[in-house]
Amino acid sequence: GPGLVNLFRFTHRAGACRIVDDDDDVTVMPAKISESAIARQCPLCREALEMFIDAYGAEAGNLALRSVATAGVYLGGGIAPKLLPAPKFGPTLTCWVSCVVRNSARWASP
Q1: With contact defined as beta carbons under 8 Å apart, do 61 and 96 qualify?
Q2: Among 40-44, 69-73, 88-92, where is mean pLDDT lowest?
Q3: 83, exposed or middle or buried, with CB in 10 Å at 0-12, 13-18, 19+?
Q4: Rounded mean pLDDT of 93-97?
């Protein structure tokens, strides 16, 4: 979506990408950026995808905390399955767990 495209533009602010054209249709850019990152064709596309995955994982953790989820959190939609082959999907879970651990005092009994 637009979040990954914005991160792509941020990481490529110093120059053009040799794989993804900034003038491409915004609806196809996220797929191109992800494919380029997963295939390790462009380190800046990879950086943009890693930033997106970190934010996605952190927000999933925040959602769990805000809703006081006690039986787990399900991530619906099409983003999560598409990110499975991504290079940094595992550390996203680490980001999510660290968010939960940092805020676990909220759940502690008085």
Answers
A1: yes
A2: 88-92
A3: buried
A4: 56
